[in-house]
Amino acid sequence: MPAYKAPLRDTRFLLNEVLDFPAHYQRLVNGSDATPDMVDAILGECAKFSEEVLSPLNQQGDEQGCTWDQGEVRTPKGFKEAYAAYVAGGWQGLSHPVEYGGQGLPMSLGLLKSEMMATANWSFTMYPGLSLGAMNTLMQHGSEAQKQAYLTPLTEGRWTGTMCLTEPQCGTDLGQVKTRAEANADGSYALTGTKIFISSGEHDLAENIVHIVLARLPDAPKGTRGISLFIVPKFLANPDGSLGARNGVSCGSLEHKMGIHGNATCVMNFDGATGFLIGPANKGLECMFTFMNTARIGTALQGLAHAELSYQGALAYALERRSMRALSGTKEPTQIADALIHHGDVRRMLLTQKAIAEGGRALIYLASQHADKMIEGLLKNDDRQYQHWDDQLGFLTPILKGCLTELGLEAANLGMQVFGGHGYIQEHGMEQIVRDARISTLYEGTTGIQALDLLGRKVLMMSKGKAVFEFTKPIARFALELLKNEPAMRLRALTLLKIVAQWNYLTLRLAFAASRQRDIVSTACHDFLMYSGYATLAWAWAQQEAVARRKLREGGSESADFYKAKLATSDFYFQRLLPRAKGHASAMLKPVKSTMQLDQAHFAFE
Amino acid sequence: MPAYKAPLRDTRFLLNEVLDFPAHYQRLVNGSDATPDMVDAILGECAKFSEEVLSPLNQQGDEQGCTWDQGEVRTPKGFKEAYAAYVAGGWQGLSHPVEYGGQGLPMSLGLLKSEMMATANWSFTMYPGLSLGAMNTLMQHGSEAQKQAYLTPLTEGRWTGTMCLTEPQCGTDLGQVKTRAEANADGSYALTGTKIFISSGEHDLAENIVHIVLARLPDAPKGTRGISLFIVPKFLANPDGSLGARNGVSCGSLEHKMGIHGNATCVMNFDGATGFLIGPANKGLECMFTFMNTARIGTALQGLAHAELSYQGALAYALERRSMRALSGTKEPTQIADALIHHGDVRRMLLTQKAIAEGGRALIYLASQHADKMIEGLLKNDDRQYQHWDDQLGFLTPILKGCLTELGLEAANLGMQVFGGHGYIQEHGMEQIVRDARISTLYEGTTGIQALDLLGRKVLMMSKGKAVFEFTKPIARFALELLKNEPAMRLRALTLLKIVAQWNYLTLRLAFAASRQRDIVSTACHDFLMYSGYATLAWAWAQQEAVARRKLREGGSESADFYKAKLATSDFYFQRLLPRAKGHASAMLKPVKSTMQLDQAHFAFE
After folding, report:
1. What residue stretches are annotated with the Acyl-CoA oxidase/dehydrogenase middle domain (chains A, B) (predicted)?
2. A444 an active-site residue?
3. Is ipTM beyond 0.85?
4. Contact between residue A344 and residue B521 where contact means Cβ atoms under 8 Å apart
5. Per the CB < 8 Å rule, is B434 touching A439?
6. Residues B338, B350: Cα–Cα separation, whole Å
7. How is domain A291-445 classified at the architecture level of CATH?
8. Residue from A358, A457, A522 to probe the interface with B (highest B Cβ count within 10 Å)
9. CB B426 within 8 A of CB A256
């Protein structure tokens, strides 16, 4: 398993040189504490914790997995101590309100923290990650008493949380949820049903676990409009905050799965478990979806995380392993053969990983700024601000969750590929990254669901195509500035303008076609999603290149090599990866018939 | 784990309607026994064995894996009995000479057999599969005495074989092989060294194992020209064929790997093991490569196998699992939701798998005809015939091994994706297919090596681009016939002609560029390989479509639905998958610089 090294130079480049986080934080109402010094100190501490505590537990977490015994779940060796250190470091409440035990820093800092920890050890980071989902739901929809009782111990990390949505018969289609909630005399509810795929559903890291559960009231309407949201703690909380009786919720078994073995994926049985309604009755799905965008950005992170870790492993191997001679002539005459990195096809793989990781990082950081501004809108009760940034983030989210996890999986596979046959062997850890990455395109909404969310919901239904227009405006503006001020990037600017025009054109064509034939949304959405991803990454790379060129022109920097590497990687992205968008642009406009005509009975013959 | 059902209708379509195997066999000197009735009987028996014996062992083989104890290796439960049944059925010698215990049928029948068994249980099928490599090497390079001693028990399946190439320091770069072979007084050699990644290196299926080993004589030249080939049996053979003394070769350990758990991947230690030279001294690599094309077609098969099995699993799930309503309106009003197959994006995934599996099958069968004709050239001592078909097969091989395994892995991943979160759970068996498929792009030459072999060796070095011209001639001829005789396929014909022109144009451009800058071969080869794969699949689909259209026009067939499904799948391929070739065509011509310019020290910064 590659030892994780936090890419702090790249993080600082994006924060300070490309996206101007210092100015961004100065402008935020809750950003005054996020001074450059403070941010830098947090990054340094987080890198240290990720590299020294979490990274060494990653491979053994996979090997040992979690074990179930009579409903109790034991996490892999070292996880408990690491979680205690995590809590002691105050990491869980970084971006949550001071009045509930947090540090009140902007949301984006929480995401920066998550990036490093997640890259070092995804399975571990899912435990506090799921808590965030529960915390955010409580924060926005819980009563003040509920916040006091549950949000504070969650923010402090003493308790952890889960999101209990999926049932055996439904995941995507939550209207099929069957878990029942019946009113008790005291105003609480008794929940009965089975939830599956509950990440971090049971474990030995914390004294209590707060489940946020989707269930149905006895008189609820059918389908999605009859789902309510409940708090179901593992141990009921006494009024003084101490733990009370064990509640009727238990882990029936652990799933045996392809990867993320260090995280417990639980079947959770609710046997008349006591629950407390959060938010209005029958509005559970709406409440749940409020923070969906930020939760999905948290999963998009997985694309970045696995691309980065696999890149670090593959790069080290490519520098060290020697095989054959370079095509253009011997590069290391004193060695028995040249290092892999001298071979063009190995460089193609490494640069693809690098372009995905660094391009994805830029987009995740951009999204985190959007999230900061959206949350500021909430804090200031500024509905227009909230709505504007929620829309921006809402457009970017399925692109990142959908496309970045697909590309992250590709990058993880390329890292294995650089190792040749050794990549298939467990001890090197490269195949673990692929197995861990494989879940990212499945949970928190599959790639297909992201694609439908983007094209069907965000682009066509909610905005009649205007979302693409709004999103591409700053890209066009940026490209026009490049044309004016950066002659060396003239071709890049023209490429970006072409993408802006094509993206809007494709959207109009699809909107028109969908008005006559609704199915085109489902036959075109995957290609539209991937096209959008490559287009957005092109923007991210052009931005990085523009800054690097300016810095190089200004001269005198110790980082000249770093900037030149940005130029080279941008070059690779535009020349070698962006062309894939052509295929997607072409495929998405094809007749619906080519996908829909085959009768379901005729997909196979004996 | 999906239960395997042999797709006999598709196999018969390709054999009898598209590729006219009956006429092909009639023309072959060793084809007279392969009458249509005989072929059909073999297919039926093989389907039965694959479905009833091998398929049920596939998942438990993964769960149990192989175990090592003091050098002995135990295969998963049931493998031993299945192998005995395989031997009793005479399957191993199907396509090998009668005089060495085989049935003397054409090579292609052996490949058809392997396809079904491999799809049902890849890990099992690797045991007899590796024997084939040893058998083919012995047949072409062994002395008559060696053939009598080793080839006969291998052909009968009483013994199995391996290919011992890789060592810890080298896999691709076999010039680095260190295993030493020192002459004994009796004309044999004593081999000392360590080989790794030896598939089927040790097991409990057969009484003896014949290792074909690459090693270096004491006075051998450095590099690839100093490698010789040796037979090293686990038990030495007595003159009467009975087993003699245990030889000094043993399994040091088993590798822990991502998948193919049912197959033993061994570290093999040679401690002065007795070996016998095959072929001329220092010509071992050349001998080894003689049958490389057919061995690689055997691995290309894995792309087809995993695409097919994953498709079968995903299709069954898509017909049964219900989620949401179709975009164009409710399809199953009496159900709680519509089956997955009514959703466009699920159909996209299924049709991608289907197009890969059935298109890949057509190409594998075509390659098997080439192999028959090449081998006939050998049998008839017709050097021109041998050379011609060796060239044709040599061009097709890296395309199939390289591109079809990449697409097979994609198809396996799509099958998991259709299952949503359930795809990640081991019990469904879909993730096993992905883990098993993952090795296929790594062993028997990585995808990068196939790409270099295709563009660098076969296209540019050996033929100066003429290989593409030769290979595309029948495609152009076919397209021109379509234009004349099949008005409904006018657009397909024009697309094919455009591909032929573009493929040749790209080759010329690359040849010209490579004459000035050798590195372009390594920066362009991956895109060239994938482009070639999509182009070749387009040909395969157009051929199938043309036959299906003719049959439908002739009317009266019970198979009308089958032919219509071919039309629909061809439509999908041309409209939705072939556009990917655009991106590859564009990327391969990009300046070398975009891949080669970044200094190796600047791939990462702290």
Report:
1. 163-271
2. yes
3. yes
4. yes
5. no
6. 16
7. Up-down Bundle (1.20)
8. A522
9. yes
